[in-house]
């Protein structure tokens, strides 16, 4: 599956409570289950008026269908070209 970053513009997203985020998660899980195709919600991050989500699916159209079924905005969907992190660097030489 391909990995995508989804940018969702939601006014006052940073003010959502734990209970509200749990409700969003439940709705998202139900939307995933209804798709009937391979789909994984990896994680989401709230920052200001946006929520950034990392999902895995076969294509961007499936990402958009998940958003439609869940009633979520999907203002920008970008396929991840590559991933790296601190583990990507060679070990320091002593």
From TrEMBL:
Pfam families per the record? SCO4226-like (PF14026)
Q: Gene3D superfamilies from the entry? A: ORF SCO4226, nickel-binding ferredoxin-like monomer
Q: InterPro entries per the record? A: SCO4226, SCO4226-like
User: Can you tell which superkingdom this protein's organism belongs to?
Assistant: Bacteria
Q: Protein name, please?
A: DUF4242 domain-containing protein
